Amino acid sequence: MARILAILAVLALTEATISHTKLGRGHVGVERETALMQTFNRDLADSKVTPVTRVVNLLKEMTHTLEKEMEEDENLYKQLSCWCNDNVWAKKVATETNTAKAEELTATIETLTARSLELKTRIAELE
Fold first, then answer.
1. Residue 22 resides in a domain
2. Is residue 101 part of a domain?
3. Is residue 29 a part of any domain in this protein?
């Protein structure tokens, strides 16, 4: 019997050492974990709130948070879509205006080139 207890004690110590080295918590981490578990268990015992109730309450809080974030995202989407539509419209108008201006300038260049040739011819005649 003593031998079995000794083997169990060695196995427990070995398992504890292995689990602490795997998790990398060390002595301080184990103490923190133990303290947290004690606090958690004490809170459950004092408040008479079951873990399921806590999870349900957390899910309700998450739902409210998600709804709030969803509203913020919708407002941001509206602002950005409005900006994008305005930007597309402004670029379209600017493109049309610049295309018309380019055509006008091309026509002016052709007119002035023809006028220049006409004046060169006149100068040649007058000389």
1. yes
2. no
3. yes
